[in-house]
Amino acid sequence: MGVIDKAALILNALEAGPTSLAQLVALTKISRPTVHRLAQALVHHRLVGKDIHGRFVLGGRLVELASAAGEDRLIAAAGPLLLQLRDTTGESTQVFRRQGAYRVCVASAERPVGLRDTIPVGTQLSMKAGSAAQVLLAWEDHERLLDGLHGARFTPTILAGVRRRGWAQSLGEREPGVASVSAPVRGPSGRVIAAVSMSGPIERLSRQPGRTHQEVVVQTANALSEALRKTGD
């Protein structure tokens, strides 16, 4: 395996969020000295960065390169799918990515009239509450899962249910009176890289929003995953 192949494995391993050196070794199956050397080289070129805990994260240079390429595949593919989901459910819809300790709204389609849950693109929300946070955490490895559960509004049992069903729901976790349903978006490697969500007032969505909306939310997330797989071929 060449140097570029190994560097690509490291970048792919960082797709799901902050990763320690030991986790990189376990995920890539590359020797610890080699992973450390390559990761530091990627840091030097800003393709990889470090968070406040010293864990490796994807670097700012990747954002610049994506912009230079003319589009972000996730955002480009999400637009029409979120509009369709909004029109089907009658509620606001979003796509969230994890960035360190937060989840960031990278695409949205708001309900045009009436009471709605407004989350503008660029909004940073906690990873400790909400159905999208549940989805972005549920498929993490054991160490990240334990770290993410510290101080969270949801429990290990709830996340086990998310993994079993393939979708999450929340009632007033992030904000009183707001309900949401979310499902995972997977990158070409199969890892969860984002969450598709729909959200609105509990009065409209009821106290079991997943019962009504999980099927269409999961379909939208699967369609977005498939679009990313095709662009990655």
Structural overview:
The chain is an alpha+beta fold and 233 residues long. It has two domains: 3-68, Orthogonal Bundle (Arc Repressor Mutant, subunit A), CATH 1.10.10.10; 73-232, GAF domain (Beta-Lactamase, 2-Layer Sandwich). 48% of the residues lie in helices and 21% in strands. It has ten helices and eight strands. A hairpin with a 5-residue loop joins strand 7 and strand 8 (192-201). It is globular, with a radius of gyration of 18 Å. The mean pLDDT is 91. Residues 61-230 form the IclR-ED domain.
Integer tally of domains: 2
Radius of gyration: 18 Å
CATH superfamily of the largest domain: GAF domain
> Would you state the CATH class of the largest domain?
Alpha Beta
InterPro entries: GAF-like_dom_sf, HTH_MetabolicPath_Reg, Tscrpt_reg_IclR_C, Tscrpt_reg_IclR_N, WH-like_DNA-bd_sf, WH_DNA-bd_sf
Domain HTH iclR-type: 1-60
Keywords: DNA-binding, Transcription, Transcription regulation
Domain IclR-ED: 61-230
How is this structure best summarized?
Pfam families: HTH_IclR (PF09339), IclR_C (PF01614). This protein has 233 residues and is of the alpha+beta class.
Q: Could you outline the blueprint of secondary structure elements for this entry?
A:
Layout: H1 3-13, H2 21-28, H3 32-44, E1 48-50, E2 56-58, H4 60-68, H5 73-89, E3 92-99, E4 102-109, E5 124-126, H6 131-138, H7 142-149, H8 156-165, E6 168-171, E7 178-186, E8 192-201, H9 202-205, H10 209-232
Antiparallel strand pairs: 1-2, 3-4, 3-8, 4-5, 6-7, 7-8
